[in-house]
């Protein structure tokens, strides 16, 4: 039987760039002690109080169909949180509850793009971005944010690609680079969106993990509230990755149509999870800061280890739960270096090439293991890099 080209071509063909990750998991399963610095999964579970709220909601019988666009209480809490954090007036009618940020990305691109439209996104990128765009029938077009600009996108280069496109997807703080986009960068990107009538799709799931500077949502910029769709989630802010609970915030008309899509796809999110999300948001910014704190501390630990040497150079890690490391001085690609580190020291990091072309010659380390284990792994990474550039000794 014939399969649809859309589903067959979802990944674009070829390697998905995650060979190191798969190999590390296979070595782990074979009994090797692997330090996994690959994916953005907290090293703590969801807080017991949130799980208790989920359990209580389940036992209270909140197990049937829920409102397809999200229960009112959760949409009210998200709207209040967004208003407080960004200064942009937001009502429950601006909020669609979705099963995680990934579903939000899919839904937002469905709202922005018709079949065959061009959808722009920034390279380096989170691994699912191009496949998400292909999944809605649009054509992904990456614009490189270069290391010599500290991975800040160049609005002029985005403008060159903008004619005929329908949307621009950004992510700040950024995965994989840890870069927090500046006001200058965001103003320039907003200018491009206004000039070329683009939707801005802003992935802001790391908005509570900002170490340097401020988080600025493009929705707050002049003329952008009516053309911006913001993706949010409790995965990173509340260590609720497996609960699959997130939202899209945007203009009321767009949210109404996206709610129709939810009716015909996800059919809503489990009510007991939404009740737990309400409880989680009620814990306030202090709780979110507690979840975020280890990643800032570990960021500082890594930067401290890198001082006094110039073989491995960090990209300014201003947010998120990762540090991107420039290992081009070793002469190896990011993938070759990551494989060598895995084989020699059983430390798994992601090659920069896993996230597009712009980060070739880099590796990404997730700050997702306890401090002493992270320090040992980074020392082994530095030892491996130094061995590749040090003169041979007899």
Automatic annotation (TrEMBL):
Its cofactor is pyridoxal 5'-phosphate. GO terms for biological process: amino acid metabolic process. Residues 33-380 form the Aminotransferase class I/classII large domain. Transmembrane segments: none annotated. It comes from Roseovarius bejariae. Its EC number is 2.6.1.-. This is Aminotransferase. It holds the Pfam family Aminotran_1_2.
């Amino acid at each position: 039987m014939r399969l649809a080209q859309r589903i067959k071509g979802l990944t674009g063909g070829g390697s998905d760039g995650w060979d190191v990750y798969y190999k590390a998991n296979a070595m782990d399963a074979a009994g090797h002690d692997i330090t996994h610095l690959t994916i953005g999964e907290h090293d703590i579970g969801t807080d017991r109080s949130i799980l208790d709220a989920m359990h209580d909601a389940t036992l209270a019988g909140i197990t049937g169909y829920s409102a397809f666009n999200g229960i009112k209480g959760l949409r009210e809490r998200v709207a209040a949180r967004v208003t407080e954090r960004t200064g942009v007036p937001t009502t429950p009618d601006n909020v669609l509850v979705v099963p995680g940020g990934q579903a939000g990305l899919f839904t937002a691109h469905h709202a922005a793009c018709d079949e065959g439209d061009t959808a722009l996104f920034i390279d380096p990128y989170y691994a699912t971005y191009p496949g998400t765009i292909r999944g809605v029938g649009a054509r992904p077009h990456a614009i490189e944010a270069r290391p010599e600009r500290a991975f800040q996108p160049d609005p002029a280069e985005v403008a060159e690609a903008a004619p005929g496109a329908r949307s621009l997807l950004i992510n700040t703080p950024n995965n994989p680079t840890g870069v927090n986009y500046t006001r200058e960068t965001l103003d320039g990107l907003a200018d491009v969106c206004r000039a070329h009538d683009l939707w801005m799709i802003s992935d802001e799931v790391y908005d509570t993990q900002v170490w340097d500077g401020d988080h600025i949502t493009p929705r707050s910029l002049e003329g952008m509230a009516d053309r911006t769709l913001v993706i949010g989630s409790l995965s990173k802010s509340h260590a609720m990755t497996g609960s699959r609970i997130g939202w899209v915030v945007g203009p009321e008309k767009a949210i109404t149509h996206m709610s129709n899509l939810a009716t015909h796809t996800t059919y809503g999110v489990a009510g007991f999870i939404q009740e737990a999300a309400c409880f989680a948001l009620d814990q306030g910014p202090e709780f979110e800061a507690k979840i975020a704190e280890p990643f800032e501390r570990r960021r500082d630990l890594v930067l401290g280890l890198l001082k006094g040497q110039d073989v491995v150079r960090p990209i300014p890690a201003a947010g998120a739960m990762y540090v991107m490391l420039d290992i081009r001085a070793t002469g190896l690609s990011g993938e070759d270096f990551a494989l060598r580190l895995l084989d020699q020291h059983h430390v798994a990091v992601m090659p920069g090439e896993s996230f597009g072309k712009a980060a070739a010659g880099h590796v990404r380390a997730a700050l997702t293991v306890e401090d002493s284990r992270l320090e040992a792994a980074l020392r082994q990474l530095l030892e491996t890099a130094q061995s590749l550039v040090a003169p041979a000794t007899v």
